[in-house]
Amino acid sequence: MKKALITGVTGQDGSYLAEFLMEKGYEVHGVIRRSSSYNQERLEHIHLSELLGSNGNIKRFFLHYGDITDALNIMNLISTIQPDEIYNLAAQSHVHVSFEMPGYTLDVDAKGTLNILEAVRILGLAEKTRVYQASTSELFGKVQEVPQKETTPFYPRSPYGIAKMYGYWITKNYRESYQLFAVNGILFNHESERRAENFVTRKITLAAARIAKQKQQTLQLGNLDAYRDWGYAKDYVECMWLMLQHDKPEDFVIATGEMHSVREFAEIAFQHAGIELQWTGVGIQEKGINRSTGEVVVEVSPRYFRPAEVDQLLGDPTKAKKLLNWNPTKTTFEELVKRMVHFDLEKVAKEENTVKMFE
Known about the structure:
The protein has 359 residues and is of the alpha/beta class. It has 2 domains: 185 residues, NAD(P)-binding Rossmann-like Domain (Rossmann fold); 106 residues, Alpha-Beta Complex (UDP-galactose 4-epimerase, domain 1). The chain contains 11 helices and 15 strands. Strands 3-2-1-4-5-6-11 form a 7-stranded parallel sheet, with helices on both faces. It has a 4-stranded mixed sheet with strand order 8-15-14-13. Helix 1 crosses helix 8. The chain is globular and about 65 Å long.
């Protein structure tokens, strides 16, 4: 039975990856940070499956307290677990927040990656343990060519992108210097119903659901003309695994090859919530109007603009399709948005029923 260690296991990608690996027969170990508030909602179904004996009463899912900024802690965990595969998904991954917390972003996204690679090297696990580093399309930032592929020059435009660039290059350096099987997955935007509510896509789908249920009046957004390559997170974790099963360590761009604007995302989201949007005005004066009622439901707020904007990101998944036989459009953009909205419509309905129970 192979062992996998996942940092950032409580996040969107980490929870999907844990599911995927357990389905493949892995023993999965996740690293969680100690918190006074419960942060394992995305893992509850895995815990339940273990309790019900769905794995034949063999425990295959373990959680460990830790933090990738603590080099000694990470070395102890890797030494104890002796994983065959490490997936470093832990990060301060919110771009806007990285401008407010650049030092913390550096500690987690750059130094944290180094701590993992150093542990594998010092423990003499270079021949046993394969390492996946979660890289990002934010490396490309001010894009130098369209679409972006593995050979496109980097030009990050945020503390997050810059910290992740260190993570990318130190991973590549350890691969070339110490013969580690260490790879970078340059993932473009990937979303799901498990995305945190402070990310723009989930913010849109949740607001659409709440506005449709008359629980919220308006949604405030930043740059409606930002274009992104959006895929489904559950499809993307499969590609993470495929990268570590490849016969040699290589870096891959993971994307759909399609680009859509924030405005288009909002239009489709509201449509699936039963609201047709009509746009009026330009720039910060632009508004989304509910066509049937005439009410303003979407506004543009300067507070959500980045200090350095990334206007468009479009990935070229050709290499992953060819070498890994991966299908980047298994879930279409339309289906992705639909799933997120329907999930949030159910979430709002449940919240409403809960309130009624206590009235």
